[in-house]
Structure to design on (1098 residues):
C-alpha cells in the first residue's frame, strides 16, 4: 500500500492488480493532498491524513473503502499531520500535528471519533518532531523523536505524563526509532549511531558498519530476531541478537538499494518480504526468506527488485513532472518523458515498464509511431528518432532542431511534424526530406493536431490564432483569431472541422472550420483553467485536465455539443493527481484515456462507455475489451550475432557440465555402492545378534510357562475347595427361602380373593353413575351444537358481506384510478407533442436569430411548470391509493375482530410472539457470531496466502524434480545405447574371427592341392571369401550405428587383414613355384607358369 497522486494504491504483487482509495467514492474522502499514511497491525484499517485545516484523518476499512470514520480535532493548530500510528491491538490511533503548534492527539477510533487525550510536544521555535509510535507491549506508552528530542509519554486518567528517561547528556538529532518485541527500543541518529534502551534505561550505543563517511540512520523497523535499519547512502543492515556481543546485536546481512536515500521501510506480517521507499520515488522489495545465502561480507544488489517497475524520478530541478505522453495503435505501449530526462515505454496491458533510457538534455515532448516501433523525442538541443529494439530504445537518427516544443507523427505514420516557437516543420519519416515549412503568426505555438488523412495540420498559438494548414498548398486553409485571450490547449475532430480551445479564463470555445463560425461557451465547471485536453473519436466527449496550483486536480469529461445537457446532468470528474494534470492521451478506439501529472503519476482510465456511466468513469480493467496487438519487433544484427555466440558458449558449457555430471554420478554411484556394502554387512551382524537374542528370549519364555503352569494348578485346587464350601452354604439358604416363599404365596391368595370382591362392587356403582352422567351430557351437547351452528351461520353472513363490500370498494377505486390515469396520459401526450413542437420551433429560431432565446427559456419554464403539475397530479393519485389501502386495512381489522372469537387463533398468536422473541435472541447471537467470524476470516485469508506461496514453492520443487528425472532418463538411454554398441562390436569381432577361420581353412585346402585346376578353383574360392562386401555382422544399417570410432577401427582391422592376406599369398606363391619345379615336366608341357598366373589374375 502506497500513495500515488491523489489515491492510495493497494497493490497485489502476484497478480499485479491495483485497488484504489480515492476521492470519487461516495461520500468523498480524499479531497486534499496526502501528508501521512498509517495502517493497523492487522492490516484491516488505513489512516490517511491530508493537508487541510484542521487536518482531518480518515480511517478507511480496506475490505470496504466506503466504510470509514473521520477523526478531527479543532485545536490541531496545523494544516499538516507529520505522523500517524496505531497501537498493537488496533484500538488506538495517534497523530502528530506539524508546525506551528505540534499537538499530539490520541483517539480510541473503535469506540468514537472524539479525542481522548492531547498534548503539545514542541513549540513554534522548538525542535521538529519526526516520528511517534506506540509501545509494542503497552498501548498506553508512547514514544516520540525529533531534533535533539526524545520523549516517553504515558496515558494516565486521560492525560499524557512525561516519563523520565535516562539518556545521554548531549542528545543528538534523532531521525527515527522503533520498539522491539521485548521492553526495548532503538533510535537512529543523524551521525549514524544506533542507541539501545532497555526498560527506559540507556543500555548501549553502536554505529552502523564503518564506511568512508558515516551516514545518517533514516529508518528503523523491528522483526522477530532483531531490527532492520537503513542509511541515507542506500544501504540496508539486518541486525540480530547476539548475547556474546557487548551491544547485544550484530549486523548479519547487508543489502544495497542504489545511491538513493531510503526514507521508509515496511515489513510484511510473515516477515518474508521487505519494502523500501527511496528519496527518488522508487519502491524496492527484498525477499528475506531467501537471504540466508548472504553472510554479511559484501552488499548484495540482486536481492532488491523494483515492486512493479521503475517510477518517475525527480529531475535536476527537483520536479518529477511528466511533460509528454503518447500511445501506440498496434502495440499496448505508451511513451512518457519527464523532468528526470528519462524516456519510458510502458505496457498498459501487462502493467510493466518495457524499457527506459536517460538523456543528457532536458526533454520537452514525445511522440510514438502508430506501429509502436519508432519514437520521436524532442529536447532543448536536438530531435531524436529512436528505434524500439527488444527491451531497449536505440537512437536511429539525430535531427538538428533547437527548442522543440511539440512533435507528432501523422495518423498514418509516414510523416511527422515538429514545432519551434512560430514554425512547423513537416518531414517524411522514411526519406527524412522536408515536406513543408509552415510559418504563421508571430505567437508561440501551444498545440498542434493532424487530421485523419495526413493532409492538414491544426496549429494554435498562445495569442489566440487558430490556423488549419493544407500541406499540398503550404498555406492556411482556415484561419481564425480570438482577441484578448491567451490560449493554452486545443482539441479537434479527426477531420479538423470542429475545433475546441481552452484559454486562461477557463472558458471552452468552439470553432467550425467549414463555416468560419466561432462560439465561446463556458462549461458547467467554468472558470477553472486547464492545461491539456483531448477529444474522443466518437466526437461526443472532450476530456480536460485541470491545472489549478497548490491543490489536487481532476480529469473532467464534457459532453458535446456545447450547451447541451451534460452527462447525467453534470460533467464527469475524477480526481487522480495531487497537482496539475500535465498531459493527456487517448487510445485510437476511445477505450482508454491516459493522464500524466506534475507529481510524476500516470493514470489509465476506462472511458469506453462514459456516457452511460453517469458522473464517473473507472480505471482500466485489463480483462475486458481484449485487443489483438501486433507481435512484430525490431532486432539489431549485433544482438543476433551476440545471441548466437552466447548460445554456442552456453551449449559448450552445458556439454562440459554434462560430462562433469556424468563423472560425479559415477563417483556417487561408487560411493553409494561401498556404503550399501557396509550397511549390508552391518545388517547381517545385527541380524545375527537379534537372532541370538531371540533364542535367549524363547528359552526364557519356556521357563516362565512352566512356572506359570505350576502356579495355575495350585490356584485351581484352592478354587475347587472354595466352590464346595459355597455350594453347601447355597443349598441351606435355598431351603430356607423356599419355605418362606410358600408362606407368602398363601398370603397372596387371601389378598386376591378380597380384592376381587371389592372390585366387582366398585364396577357396579360406577356403571350406575356413568349412565346418569351420560344422559345429562347428551342434553348439554345438543344445546351447545345448536348454539355453535347459529354462530357459524352468523359468521358466514358477516364474511360474505365484508367480501362484497371489499370487492365493490376495489372496483370503484380501480375505475376511478383508470379514469384519472387515462385523462392524465392524454394530457401528458398532448403536452409531450406540444413540447416536441416547441423544441422544433426552438431549433429553427435558434439558427435564424439569437433574439428568440428568451422565448425558448419561457417555453422551458412552462414545460417545467407542466411537469410540476403532472407531479402534483401523480401525488394525488398516490393519495387515492393510500385511501384504498386504508379501506383495505379497515376490512382486515373487522376480519381480525371476528377471528378474535376463535380461541385457537389467539393461542397461535401468543406462540408467534414467543417465536419472535426467540428470533430476536437468535439475531443478536448471529450478529455476535459474525463479529467473531470477521477476524477469523482475516486469519484464514492470511493462511490461504501462505498456502498459495507454499504451493508455488512446491510447484518449483516438482519442476526441478521433473527436470532431474528427464536428465536421468537421458543418461539411462545413453548407457543403453553404449551397451548396444558394445554388443555390436563384440558380434562384429566374432564375425571377423569366423571369417579368419574360413580363410585359414581355405588356405589349408589350397596348400593340399596338387593339380593346377584344383589349385585355380581353390584360389578363386579364396579370393571370393577375401573380397566379398557383406561381412558377417557388419550390415550398412549396423555400420551406421557404430559411429565414427567404430568405422576407424574397422578400417584399421581391414588394412591389417589385407596385409596378412598379401603375405599369405606371397608365401603361397613361393610354395606354388616350388611345387611347379617338382612337377615341372608335366605341367610345363601343358601350361606354363606365366599362363597360370595370368589366369589367376596375379
Amino acid at each position: 500500500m502506497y500513495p500515488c497522486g491523489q489515491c492510495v494504491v493497494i497493490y497485489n504483487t502476484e497478480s499485479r492488480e491495483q485497488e484504489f482509495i480515492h476521492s470519487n467514492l461516495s461520500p468523498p474522502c480524499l479531497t486534499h493532498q496526502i501528508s501521512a499514511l498509517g495502517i493497523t497491525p492487522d492490516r484491516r484499517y488505513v489512516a490517511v491524513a491530508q493537508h487541510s485545516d484542521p487536518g482531518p484523518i480518515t480511517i478507511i476499512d480496506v475490505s470496504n473503502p466506503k466504510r470509514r470514520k473521520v477523526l478531527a480535532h479543532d485545536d490541531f493548530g496545523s494544516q499538516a499531520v507529520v505522523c500517524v500510528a496505531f497501537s498493537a491491538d488496533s484500538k488506538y490511533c495517534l497523530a502528530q500535528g506539524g508546525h506551528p503548534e505540534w499537538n499530539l492527539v490520541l483517539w480510541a477510533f473503535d469506540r468514537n471519533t472524539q479525542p481522548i487525550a492531547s498534548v503539545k510536544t514542541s513549540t513554534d521555535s522548538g525542535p521538529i518532531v519526526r516520528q511517534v509510535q506506540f509501545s509494542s507491549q503497552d498501548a498506553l506508552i508512547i514514544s516520540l523523536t525529533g531534533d535533539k528530542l526524545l520523549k516517553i509519554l504515558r496515558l494516565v486518567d486521560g492525560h499524557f505524563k512525561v516519563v523520565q528517561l535516562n539518556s545521554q547528556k548531549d542528545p543528538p538529532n534523532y531521525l527515527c526509532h522503533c520498539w522491539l518485541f521485548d521492553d526495548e527500543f532503538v533510535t537512529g541518529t543523524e551521525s549514524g549511531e544506533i542507541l539501545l534502551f532497555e526498560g527506559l534505561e540507556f543500555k548501549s550505543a553502536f554505529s552502523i558498519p564503518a564506511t568512508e563517511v558515516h551516514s545518517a540512520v533514516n529508518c528503523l523497523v523491528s522483526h522477530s530476531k532483531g531490527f532492520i535499519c537503513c542509511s541515507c547512502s542506500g544501504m540496508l543492515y539486518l541486525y540480530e541478537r547476539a548475547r556474546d556481543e557487548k551491544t547485544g546485536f550484530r549486523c548479519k546481512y547487508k543489502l544495497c538499494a542504489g545511491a538513493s536515500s531510503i526514507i521508509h521501510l515496511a515489513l510484511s506480517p510473515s516477515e518474508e518480504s521487505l519494502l523500501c521507499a527511496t528519496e527518488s520515488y522508487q519502491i524496492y522489495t527484498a525477499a528475506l526468506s531467501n537471504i540466508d545465502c548472504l553472510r554479511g561480507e559484501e552488499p548484495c544488489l540482486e536481492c532488491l527488485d523494483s515492486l512493479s517497475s521503475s517510477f518517475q524520478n525527480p529531475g535536476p530541478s527537483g520536479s518529477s513532472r511528466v511533460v509528454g505522453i503518447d500511445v501506440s495503435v498496434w502495440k499496448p505501449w505508451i511513451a512518457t518523458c519527464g523532468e528526470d530526462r528519462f524516456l519510458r515505454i510502458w505496457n498498459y496491458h501487462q502493467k510493466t515498464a518495457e524499457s527506459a533510457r536517460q538523456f543528457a538534455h532536458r526533454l520537452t515532448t514525445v511522440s510514438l509511431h502508430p506501429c509502436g516501433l519508432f519514437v520521436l523525442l524532442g529536447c532543448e538541443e536536438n530531435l531524436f528518432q529512436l528505434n524500439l529494439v527488444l527491451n531497449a530504445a536505440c537512437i536511429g537518427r539525430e535531427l538538428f532542431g533547437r527548442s522543440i516544443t511539440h512533435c507528432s507523427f501523422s495518423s498514418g505514420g509516414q510523416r511527422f511534424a515538429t514545432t519551434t516557437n512560430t514554425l512547423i516543420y513537416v518531414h517524411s519519416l522514411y526519406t527524412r526530406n522536408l515536406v513543408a515549412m509552415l510559418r504563421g503568426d508571430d505567437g508561440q505555438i501551444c498545440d498542434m493536431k493532424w487530421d485523419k488523412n495526413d493532409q492538414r495540420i491544426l496549429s494554435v498559438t498562445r495569442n489566440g490564432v487558430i490556423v488549419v494548414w493544407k500541406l499540398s498548398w503550404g498555406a492556411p486553409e482556415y484561419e481564425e483569431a480570438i482577441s484578448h485571450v491567451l490560449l493554452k490547449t486545443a482539441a479537434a475532430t479527426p477531420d479538423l472541422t470542429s475545433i475546441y480551445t481552452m484559454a486562461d479564463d477557463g472558458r471552452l470555445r468552439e470553432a467550425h472550420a467549414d463555416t468560419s463560425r466561432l462560439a465561446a461557451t463556458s462549461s458547467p465547471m467554468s472558470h477553472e483553467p486547464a492545461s491539456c485536453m483531448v477529444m474522443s473519436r466518437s466526437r461526443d466527449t472532450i476530456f480536460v485536465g485541470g491545472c489549478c496550483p497548490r491543490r489536487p486536480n481532476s480529469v473532467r469529461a464534457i459532453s458535446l455539443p456545447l450547451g447541451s445537457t451534460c452527462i447525467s446532468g453534470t460533467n464527469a470528474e475524477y480526481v487522480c493527481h495531487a497537482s496539475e494534470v500535465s498531459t493527456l492521451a487517448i487510445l485510437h478506439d476511445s477505450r482508454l484515456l491516459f493522464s500524466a501529472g506534475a507529481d510524476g503519476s500516470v493514470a489509465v482510465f476506462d472511458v469506453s462507455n462514459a456516457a452511460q456511466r453517469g458522473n464517473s468513469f473507472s480505471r482500466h480493467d485489463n480483462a475486458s475489451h481484449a485487443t489483438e496487438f501486433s507481435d512484430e519487433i525490431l532486432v539489431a544484427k549485433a544482438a543476433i550475432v551476440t545471441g548466437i555466440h552466447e548460445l554456442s558458449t552456453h551449449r559448450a558449457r552445458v556439454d562440459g557440465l554434462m560430462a562433469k555430471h556424468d563423472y560425479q554420478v559415477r563417483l556417487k554411484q561408487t560411493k553409494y555402492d561401498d556404503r550399501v556394502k557396509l550397511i549390508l554387512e552391518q545388517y547381517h551382524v545385527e541380524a545375527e545378534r537379534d537372532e541370538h537374542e531371540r533364542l535367549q528370549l524363547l528359552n526364557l519364555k519356556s521357563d516362565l510357562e512352566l512356572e506359570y503352569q505350576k502356579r495355575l494348578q495350585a490356584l485351581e485346587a484352592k478354587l475347587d475347595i472354595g466352590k464346595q464350601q459355597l455350594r453347601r452354604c447355597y443349598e441351606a439358604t435355598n431351603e430356607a427361602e423356599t419355605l418362606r416363599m410358600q408362606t407368602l404365596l398363601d398370603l397372596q391368595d387371601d389378598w386376591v380373593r378380597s380384592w376381587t370382591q371389592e372390585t366387582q362392587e366398585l364396577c357396579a356403582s360406577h356403571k350406575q353413575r356413568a349412565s346418569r352422567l351420560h344422559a345429562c351430557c347428551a342434553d348439554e351437547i345438543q344445546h351447545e351444537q345448536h348454539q355453535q351452528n347459529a354462530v357459524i351461520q352468523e359468521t358466514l353472513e358477516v364474511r360474505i358481506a365484508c367480501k362484497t363490500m371489499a370487492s365493490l370498494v376495489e372496483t370503484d377505486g380501480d375505475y376511478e384510478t383508470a379514469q384519472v390515469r387515462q385523462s392524465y396520459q392524454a394530457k401528458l401526450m398532448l403536452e409531450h407533442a406540444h413540447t416536441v413542437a416547441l423544441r422544433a420551433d426552438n431549433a429553427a429560431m435558434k439558427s435564424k436569430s439569437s433574439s428568440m432565446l428568451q422565448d425558448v427559456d419561457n417555453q422551458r419554464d412552462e414545460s417545467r411548470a407542466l411537469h410540476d403539475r403532472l407531479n402534483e397530479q401523480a401525488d394525488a393519485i398516490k393519495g387515492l391509493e393510500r385511501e384504498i389501502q386504508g379501506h383495505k386495512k379497515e376490512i382486515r381489522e373487522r376480519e381480525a375482530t371476528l377471528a378474535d372469537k376463535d380461541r385457537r387463533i389467539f393461542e397461535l398468536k401468543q406462540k408467534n410472539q414467543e417465536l419472535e422473541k426467540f428470533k430476536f435472541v437468535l439475531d443478536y447471537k448471529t450478529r455476535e457470531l459474525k463479529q467473531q467470524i470477521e477476524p477469523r476470516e482475516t486469519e484464514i485469508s492470511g493462511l490461504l496466502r501462505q498456502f498459495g506461496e507454499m504451493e508455488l514453492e512446491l510447484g518449483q520443487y516438482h519442476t526441478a524434480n521433473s527436470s532431474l528425472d528427464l536428465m536421468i532418463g537421458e543418461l539411462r538411454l545413453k548407457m543403453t545405447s553404449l551397451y548396444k554398441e558394445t554388443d555390436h562390436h563384440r558380434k562384429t569381432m566374432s564375425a571377423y574371427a569366423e571369417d579368419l577361420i574360413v580363410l585359414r581353412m581355405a588356405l589349408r585346402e589350397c596348400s593340399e592341392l596338387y593339380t593346377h585346376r584344383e589349385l585355380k578353383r581353390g584360389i578363386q574360392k579364396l579370393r571370393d571369401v577375401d573380397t566379398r562386401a557383406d561381412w558377417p555382422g557388419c550390415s550398412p544399417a549396423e555400420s551406421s550405428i557404430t559411429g565414427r570410432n567404430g568405422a576407424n577401427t574397422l578400417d584399421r582391422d581391414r588394412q591389417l587383414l589385407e596385409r596378412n592376406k598379401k603375405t599369405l599369398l606371397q608365401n603361397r606363391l613361393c610354395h606354388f613355384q616350388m611345387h611347379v619345379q617338382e612337377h615341372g615336366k608335366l605341367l610345363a608341357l601343358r601350361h606354363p607358369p606365366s599362363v597360370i598366373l595370368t589366369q589367376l589374375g596375379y
Q: What stands out?
A: The first strand starts at residue 2 and ends at 4. Residues 548 and 580 are 6 Å apart (CA to CA). The chain has a mean pLDDT of 79.
